[in-house]
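Continued from yesterday's entry.
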Amino acid sequence: MNSNDGNFLNRFRQKQLEEEEQKKRQEELDRKKLFDAAFKRRGKRKQTTTKEEENKKAKTQDEIPADLDEKASAYLKEMRKMKDMHGGKDSGSGVRPLVK
């Protein structure tokens, strides 16, 4: 039958060592890829836009309630246009009121 000469234990240890070496190689490869990507992007802005941020921006812009009448919606469009022309900042020096 099977002899208890330690071959199973040796094979088991060998398998564990191979798995550890493979993990180390994979981690090293991942680090190199990250470094290469960061090296290529140096001096550039980081892209932090995610889908959630894009959705939030889309919701905040162009939100005109449907229950407003024609004059009110035209007024809101004009206000938005004026705000865009003046840089969109609401406070600080040089801020002019949108409506007199």
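--- second protein ---
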Amino acid sequence: PVIGDQLVETVVVDEAVELIVEPTDVEAGTVVEVTAVAVPEALVVVSVSPPALGPEAVVVGATGVVGAVGVVVGTVGVVVGPVGVVVGAEGVVVGAVGVVVGATGVVVGAVGVVVGAVGVVVGAVGVVVGAVGVVVRAAGVVVGATGVVVGAAGIVVGAVGVVVGAAGVVVEATGVVVGAAGIVVGAVGVVVGVAGVVVGAVGVVVGAVGVVVGATGVVVGAEGVVVGAVGVVVGAVGVVDGAAGVVVGA
């Protein structure tokens, strides 16, 4: 049906229909409410024929609110207009090409924002926080239930704390991984964990009692401390200091 001179504010449909709102028939700011009663899953499309009514015109449908140049499709809510805004059960989309798809909340637009049951995606690189948390971009990272991924360099905070790169570690100089199994900082990196492995330029393996930092490294363990290239070792029975070395007994 086409809404003509006699504007019907409430339309009840029992099948898939398209309601075309002509600019000559609807004044700016007019609200049209669409309800699907007989067939709850009926596809209802509310569209505005060009020219658009202007940014102040709003159409209210079964799945949300759309600006004058937008379209709402079905119960999951899709925006295809350049300035449209959809507010519905699955989230909010704001942006030129943003789309909200179903209960899993996926953004396919460069500037879109999705707020839904499983997460938030912001910006071209993207941020995902949710039950499973997936960034679906070229630099994307998949994070577990407790994880947060921010930016291309990546910050992950979660139960296992992993940034997935070529070798399964942080691959950016400014990257940080914080988790129950360890901390990785910088290009050379620091790892503290049950087995503790540093995969930086010098490549040192430290056990459960130690920390290795950088090329010259610092190791702190139950039996000692190593500092610098020539090093200082403090153990249960003494101290060795420098290349010439000083040993102090118990």
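The chain has two domains: 1-94, 154-234. The radius of gyration is 29 Å. Will compare against the first tomorrow.
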